[in-house]
Amino acid sequence: MPNNVKRRYFCTATVLLLLTIASTSAGAESGAGLFLGRWTILNDRQGLSDQQRPYKIIDVVPCEGHICGISVSDTGDCGSVLFRHLTLHEGPLGLFMDGSGKWGKDSLTLRIIRLEDAPQIRVFLSRFTVGTGNEGTRTVEYRETYRRMADAACSTT
User: Fold this and answer.
1) What is the sign, positive or negative, of the torsion defined by CA atoms of 32, 38, 41, 47?
2) How many other CB atoms are there within 10 angstroms of residue 73's CB atom?
3) By the 8 A CB rule, do 78 and 59 touch?
4) What is the pLDDT of residue 122?
5) How far apart, in whole angstroms, are the C-alpha atoms of residue 15 and residue 43?
6) Dihedral sign, CA of 43, 146, 148, 101?
7) CB 153 within 8 A of CB 124
8) Residue 39 β-bridge partners
9) Mean pLDDT for the stretch of residues 138-153
10) Which residues of 39-63 are buried (b: 16+ CB within 10 A; e: fewer)?
């Protein structure tokens, strides 16, 4: 095979590889971007527990190369960081993020699922109790659906 044909194949392969890498990273960023913003409980109700109250309104923001969630008061004041270092995944039912989140003095497993039908997310906090052998029990401590209110105003800096 002549050298100019080899060079052409090499250049074509390099361009295709670069396009694949660029589209993959852009897709991941836009996927995580779907979770960013200020979110509030869809069905606001009175009587939230001390553990639930910080999750009433949350700002989901980029931080340290990951995604973090910050508690927001009813008056819009930024509170404590509820979760950080979430990782983005795509499953058969769509996009979701996993990590851990504060629950009172504990840290529980956190999962945020993006609902495709509307600009909504569902937040789950659960506890895993190890049983005998490889068995165990997962107990959902918190499950709530949120609607997007606005752009996030809080940050971790």
Assistant:
1) positive
2) 12
3) yes
4) 95
5) 49
6) positive
7) no
8) 58, 148
9) 94
10) bbbeeeeeeeeebbebbbbbbbbbb
Question: For the segment 31-58, what is each residue's pLDDT rounded down to a tens digit?
Answer: 889 999 999 999 877 778 888 999 999 9
| Residues 135/25, Cβ–Cβ less than 8 Å | no
131 or 17: whose pLDDT is higher? 131
Interatomic CA distance for residues 88 and 76, integer angstroms: 27
Contact indicator for 117, 2 with CB cutoff of 8 Å: no
Q: Does domain 34-150 have CATH number 2.40.128?
A: yes
**Contact yes or no for 44/144 (Cβ under 8 A):** no
Identify the DSSP state of 114: E
Contact 128, 109 (CB under 8 A): yes
Bridging pattern class, strands 94-103 and 78-91: antiparallel
Degrees, nearest 5: CA angle 82-36-111: 50
Whether 36 and 61 have beta carbons less than 8 Å apart is answered as yes
Q: What is the mean pLDDT of residues 44-73?
A: 90
Residue with tokens 């913003």: 37
Cα–Cα distance for residue pair 129/14, rounded to 1 Å = 49
> Which tokens in the block code for residue 22?
């660029």
Predicted pLDDT at 26:
36
